[in-house]
Amino acid sequence: MPVARPDSSGARIIAHVDLDCFYVQVEQRKQPKLRGLPTAVVQYNEWKGGGLIAVGYEARNYGVKRSMRGDEAKEVCPQIELVQVPVARGKADLSSYRNAGSEVVSILARKGRCERASIDEVYLDLTDAAEAMLAQTPPESLDEVDEEALKSHILGLESKDGNDSKATVKEWLCRCDADHRDKLLACGVLIVTELRMQVLKETEFTCSAGIAHNKMLAKLASGMNKPAQQTTVPFSSVKGLLDSLPIKKMKQLGGKLGTSLQNELGVTTVGDLLKFSEDKLQERYGFNTGTWLWNIARGISGEEVQARLLPKSHGSGKSFPGPRALKTVASVQHWLNQLCEELSERLCSDLEQNKRIAHTLTLHASAFKSSDSDSRKKFPSKSCPLRYGTAKIQEDTFNLFQAGLREFLGSFGVKTQGSHYSGWRITALSVSASKIVPVLSGTCSITKYFNGPDKFGSTSEQLPDNFIDAAPLSPSGSESYSTLNSTELQNELPGEQVWIEHSMADLGQLEMKANTWNRLDPSCSISKQTSGTESSSSLDQNKPQNRDDSRMRSVPIKSNQQEHKKSALKDKGASSILNFFKSGDLSCSSGNHDTEHAETLLPLGDCLSESNKKQVNIPKERLDNSTGDCLSESNQNQVNIPKERLAEAATTSTTTDRCGSDQIQQRSESWKLRIEEIDPSVIDELPKEIQDEIQAWLRPSKQPHRVKRGFTIADYFSPSKNRLEQ
Ligand code: TTP
């Protein structure tokens, strides 16, 4: 259900930019001979020439529509050029479209906060840029206005007698007597024109745009005049726009809610909503949705443009319609393996390029029982914590499928032995990775806890080990751009801040070990190459650069949380844990080598050095949960760690050549943790995710070998295994 958000007080300038017939443009750039010709992109299969998924504007002029099959398109436009979507692993490969979309995003993001809303759509908050233009070079001061800007559509503006539309637009843009909102909007028109021209110049793609005071209106406007045009919604034209707008055309009203408004309240246009009081709408649809409906009827929407250039999730899917439905476990496994391979590749490149990791793996499927094809019973979506590496993802996905299949068949009263019952058919499979966070922010959830409500936290640790039912995601969507990621949440911290100091780099490193490295797989090149160095240097990007003591990090606490929240934290024991962080318990000494109580905090991969002299052999299974996944493939069976390195680690040493990185040296020389001195009652009072995080520090090797509290890293690696296991 939509949620109302308060409108911001000042006028905002928001643009929605949408690429025209996007896949067609990408294919035309690949094959310039197709430019100007009626062209469509088709997802090929044998049935009637495959389905059209993008239709160029020349082909649209002949009546070709996206709902047509290739054969039908040829009937209405015999000269149409049908280009097949690239194929990899037996399915559509959208990477060239994704990459082309990224090119555009990187240009648009130059002028303001940019939110990638889909593969070819972007929202921009241009308020600051418009304010700056208004202050420095207001449109009214311009002698000449760009020709392209003069082609803009200004809703509600009618050409005056004797004036052509360009002259009318120029007059509107350059009015001295316009109010502040319209002046800002005029700046927005000029900025978006410039951006669209830049996109054309650098990528050869045309796009259309809507410019308004909020996202909802900008989105409505961008589709009004296509291709390669832009439409602006002055405040004074909002009512006229919404009065006649069919209710189902409004974002979030295309589905059940829109149908309910039509059927139950007789609402056919957005303007019809004006007849209902806010109370009435709240009574019928709940407090939030009622207010949201009341607002949209008046063109009010406070939804922010989120700073997000990257997708929120990755997915890979394929459908198997009609006779192509899958009926054997082997065929399902074959396709799942293909989908997982693609997903894994994308996760690795996301990790490598953007330093982001995904936490949740989800399988969606559509199925029917062969004797009951009308059944509406759904194949349950299943999720589990995501482990990196193609083989692991394939294995986990297959297990999710089997769990889902058992449940699906169980809903028909069919008991299965394994998956041997054969009366099922699978018509679609998709696998997705979600809860993607920057490696860094995944390492700072305790900071976020102290900063305010932890909206995401270290999610995978909250998930049970067994599979869980997943909220439905878009089954075929290959990327989702729709929700917040943690970086944005961090950026959202407003206003005045209170500062606490503690040794943050080390906290990050701790959690890095607990949360990240043990989930990464050697098949991701980044982990192969870096064994901790890469992430450690990423970690440092978040360290304050202006502080003398690089070990100390200032952590902001949200000031808009009321005082009582701070005191509540105190009451709940947060103050004592803060004291703990601030006190000598996290001693920053390099001289005190108390091996009895020391817990080594280094990612163990950092310990692996070239200079092996005296070595102990550590079987791989001993390292699985700490370092094994970070090791290069050639090192997986066993790892040689020089004895002196273990001793160094055990004493939280000041080693200088551990990984060749000064930054890591700086951290590694810093401190040790007396775990006995953490008051368990304090931990118990913290939120679950923080408890898990601290427990992970205390017991870094969760499975299969548990280390007793108080044991040192040297004990852990000691050949006398019995001493270590509980
Ligand atoms: P759209 O933006 O919906 O459409 P479009 O860019 O092709 O055309 P327009 O100029 O009218 O905006 O979709 C963007 C791309 O997404 C489109 O080029 C192909 C792909 N797509 C699909 O693969 N399947 C679909 O059902 C839709 C709607 C789009």
From TrEMBL:
* Record-level GO BP terms: DNA repair; error-prone translesion synthesis; response to UV
Domain named UmuC: which ranges?
14-254
Name the reaction it catalyses: DNA(n) + a 2'-deoxyribonucleoside 5'-triphosphate = DNA(n+1) + diphosphate
Region span, Disordered: 461-487, 521-571
Give the Basic and acidic residues compositional bias ranges. Answer: 561-571
**Entry EC number(s):** 2.7.7.7
Please provide an example of a Pfam family that matches this protein in its UniProt record: IMS
Gene Ontology cellular component terms for the protein in this record? nucleus; replication fork; site of double-strand break
Keywords in UniProt for this one?
DNA damage, DNA repair, Magnesium, Metal-binding, Nucleotidyltransferase, Nucleus, Transferase
Extract the coiled-coil ranges from the record: none
Give cofactor(s), names only. Answer: Mg(2+); Mn(2+)
From the Swiss-Prot or TrEMBL record, state where the protein is found. Nucleus
What are the Polar residues biased-composition ranges? 475-487
Matching entries from Gene3D superfamilies are given as: 3.30.70.270, 3.40.1170.60, 5' to 3' exonuclease, C-terminal subdomain, DNA polymerase, Y-family, little finger domain
What InterPro entries has UniProt attached to this entry? DNA/RNA_pol_sf, DNA_pol_Y-fam_lit_finger_sf, DNA_pol_Y-fam_little_finger, DNA_polymerase_eta, Rev_trsase/Diguanyl_cyclase, UmuC
Q: What class of enzyme is it?
A: transferase
The UniProt entry, under PROSITE patterns, shows: UMUC (PS50173)
List all Low complexity biased stretches. 525-538
Give the molecular function GO annotations.
Answer: damaged DNA binding; DNA-directed DNA polymerase activity; metal ion binding
**What family does the database annotate?**
Belongs to the DNA polymerase type-Y family.
What name does UniProt use for this protein? DNA polymerase eta
